[in-house]
Amino acid sequence: MFIRSFALAFILFASPAAQAWNAAGHRLSAVIAWQGMSPASRSFVSQALREHPDHARWLEKSGDGDAMLVFAEATTWPDSIRRDTRFDGATATLPGFPDMDRHSDWHYADFDHRGKRGRGQIDRQIAELAKILRSTAEISEIAWAIPWLAHLVADIHQPLHVGYSEDRGGNEVLVENPFAARQPFVKLHTYWDDLPGPSGLRGKRLRLRAEALLAGQARPVQGNVARWLQESRQLLPAAYPATRGSVTLLIDEAWRDQARAIADRRIAEAGQRLGKLLEDIQRHRVSRETRPAPASISPAR
Ligand SMILES: [Zn+2]
């Protein structure tokens, strides 16, 4: 019993807090977003991404260099910089970057059980990034902001990314998973992050899974970032297993199926909303560029 308790405590406190849908979740949202975008918006996004310092790596990871798959890789970038030594503090700021910070508090926002806001910036940063993308003329800044915006729109659809401060969005809740022989105890937050599928999901399997997710879902109301956050918070009661096992909360088959269905729906919603948001941003930019200059006011004679 002592060894078991020790093992549980180790999982809870020695491993770093997980803070994102895994890479499969982000790539799926990106592929779904792409389906809803016009050729003009797709080209706006892919041209900007070409200016990003990590474009070559995305191109390589995407396999065949397809613009949609490059975009899918780019949306995992805000997580990949967690392990990137350029963000350790000694590297000069890259072109278009506001700083060389990992911004780990952008991925979430916590609220206590009474609803009082705690740590995290996710909703504020989504609004800010959309504002930057509508207004900046700097292609390198657009290249920096698109991966961030796409990433955070997906994250805010994961209920535990706007979870309770008391358990740090499910990072301090251990659940028992009888369906995973190799990892029978897992942090609740990690369990949710991994629901989209294996993190190496790419290429044809990625396209097929995105198609299947989209086929099963109705088109969501677009709403705004406040609505997306509220929807995720309303899902929080369902995000915790209702059954108690001998040591901790226990995942049973019914809850597992329900959690999978919620994750599938939220990824499809995130993708469709992201597509529309990028479409709106691109249209706004075009209408701003083509708007006639204000007529000069000449004094009346
Ligand atoms: Zn994230």
From TrEMBL:
Q: Record keywords: DNA repair included?
A: no
Q: Please give a single GO biological process term from the UniProt record.
A: DNA catabolic process
> What are the record keywords, sorted?
Disulfide bond, Endonuclease, Glycoprotein, Hydrolase, Metal-binding, Nuclease, Signal
Record Pfam families: S1-P1_nuclease
InterPro entries named among the record's database cross-references: PLipase_C/P1_nuclease_dom_sf, S1/P1nuclease
Tagged with keyword Hydrolase: yes
Q: Which Gene3D superfamilies match?
A: P1 Nuclease
What CDD domains does this protein's entry cite? S1-P1_nuclease (cd11010)
Signal peptide range in chain numbering? 1-20
Give the Gene Ontology MF terms in alphabetical order. endonuclease activity; hydrolase activity, acting on ester bonds; metal ion binding; nucleic acid binding
Q: Where are the transmembrane segments?
A: none
Q: What is this protein called?
A: Endonuclease
Q: Provide the species name.
A: Azonexus hydrophilus
